[in-house]
Write a structure and sequence with these properties.
165 residues, alpha+beta, 2,3-Dihydroxybiphenyl 1,2-Dioxygenase, domain 1, 4-stranded mixed beta sheet, 27% strand
């Protein structure tokens, strides 16, 4: 491999994630019914595409190669987690409320200095991060100006108080 001469364009974004699932209805129960994404297109019991705000899709779910399958075993390679960026702390608080109401356990909740994040698993065992960014002027920096991210406990009660009723 040769070295890249210039960084990727600053406007480049990761557009969507497409997940293999064992049971489409079960996966929809999480991404649609708990997290609140809207189905934009469906292909019977084989695939569905979901979005926020009318985009064509942020999340694809399919059973093409995985219907009835088991999650990959621990210690194997694969996707660590899908990160879903919420536009505000209030929106993240609402996501936390939805997850708690559904009885889904959190695996972690962290303040990273640059963002606040909730960590959990979807019904297929895929890691999911729900997060919101802090304003960039609040990001912790080292003396040389580089980011100095941290992992500190996120106060869930304080976050829930930010939820808009």
């Amino acid at each position: 491999m040769s070295a890249v001469s210039a960084p990727v364009a600053a406007q480049t974004r990761i557009g969507h994630v497409h997940l293999k699932v064992a049971d489409l209805e079960r996966a929809l129960g999480f991404y649609r019914d708990v997290l609140g994404f809207e189905v934009t297109q469906r292909f019977g019991d084989q695939a569905a595409f979901l979005s926020a705000g009318g985009y064509h899709h942020h999340i694809g779910l399919n059973t093409w190669d995985s219907k009835g399958g088991a999650p990959p075993p621990r210690g194997s390679t694969g996707l660590y987690h899908t990160a879903i960026l919420y536009p505000s702390r209030a929106a993240l608080a609402d996501a936390l409320y939805r997850v708690m109401q559904a009885g889904i356990a959190l695996e972690g909740a962290s303040d990273h200095g640059v963002s606040e994040a909730l960590y959990l698993r979807d019904p297929d065992g895929n890691g999911v991060e729900l997060y919101c960014d802090k304003p960039s002027e609040q990001w912790p920096r080292s003396a040389d100006g580089t980011l100095a991210m941290v992992t500190q406990r996120l106060d869930l009660e304080a976050l829930l108080q930010q939820r808009e009723a």
